[in-house]
Amino acid sequence: MKIRLIRSATILLEYAGKKFIIDPYLAAKHTMPSYTGKSLNPLVELPCEPFQVIAGIDMAIISHLHSDHFDPTAQRLLPTNLLILCQPGDESEIKAVGFQSVVPIIDQITWENIEIIRTACQHGSGEVLQEMGAASGFIFKNENEPTVYWAGDTIWCKAVDNTISQVKPSIIITHSCGAVWGDNIPIVMDAKQTVKVCLAAPTSTIIATHMESLDHTTISRECLRKYAEANGIRVEQLLIPSDGETYHFDC
Predict the structure, then answer these.
(1) Based on C-alpha coordinates, what's the Rg of the chain?
(2) Whether the predicted model's global pTM rises above the 0.90 cut
(3) Tally of structural domains, the chain
(4) Phi-psi label, residue 118: left if phi above 0, alpha if psi -120 to 50, beta otherwise
(5) By the 8 A CB rule, do 64 and 25 touch?
(6) C-beta of residue 165 within 8 angstroms of C-beta of residue 199
(7) Which of 20, 55, 84, 86 could be cross-linked to 90 through a Cys-Cys bond (beta carbons 3.0 to 4.6 Å apart)?
(8) Which three-class secondary structure state does DSSP give residue 77?
(9) CA 114, CA 202: separation in Å to the nearest integer?
């Protein structure tokens, strides 16, 4: 099994002999609008050419339709006959931009011997949560692979805690940049909340992603590492990949 961070929330997952992309955000540096007025997005280039990112993929998962998770460049470059899995309610918009094989996951599906379970997210709080709308995470299971929980765009919340305690995933992928919206309301995990994940899942490997790519983030990779170490989290438990970095895992 391989997990490669491309940039921001975009992941390539090779799992049970299949290769798929999660939340493709393939725009060139500074070609997308700012979220805060600080800078155009994304802040950095992809680690390779977009066509190399999507080469050989079997399927895509779109967790929600925010522009940093499914951008116009990805919509243009992905094959229109590619299987796309999404959360209920997003399928019509994805089909509207030309994709022919779009399947919403209500609870779970089995695809090519891989069980894919949709999980709840809390993409902010208060009025900001209403503005952000629904987002989803996903669990991946196969008898020959470690169980992976990709938490998605969420803060630490009861749904995340319950998923960890019930599923006991071997690998948890978090969005840990501390992005904020409105009156500095967190919409994904920051360093403190990422450490909560580590403490809630002491035998799991946590992979912190969605970092240093957008202008509404508040936590750097260095900041997260320092905070984690100060709170007793081992380097081996909390992985903080650079863009383009790949991890290999055995069952």
Answers:
(1) 17
(2) yes
(3) 1
(4) beta
(5) no
(6) no
(7) 86
(8) helix
(9) 25
* Cβ pair 66, 86 in contact under 8 A: no
- Residue 132: domain span: 2-248
Domain harbouring 31, CATH code: 3.60.15.10
Q: For residue 226, what is the enclosing H or E element? A: helix 221-230
At 250, the pLDDT band (50, 70, 90 cuts) reads confident
Q: Assess contact for 152 and 175: CB atoms under 8 A.
A: yes
Q: Which residue has the tokens 């290999």?
A: 248
pLDDT band at 7 (very low <50, low <70, confident <90, very high): very high
**Cα 213 versus chain centre, distance:** 13
The answer to whether 107 and 117 are in contact (CB under 8 A) is: yes
Taking the C-alpha atoms of residue 188 and residue 173, their distance in angstroms, rounded to an integer, is: 12
Nearest to 21 by CA among 68, 66, 76, 70: 70
What's the chain's length in residues? 251
> Which residue reads 């019930």 in tokens?
166
- Residue whose pair of structure tokens reads 């994709």 in the numeric block: 99
Mean of all residue pLDDT scores within the chain: 97
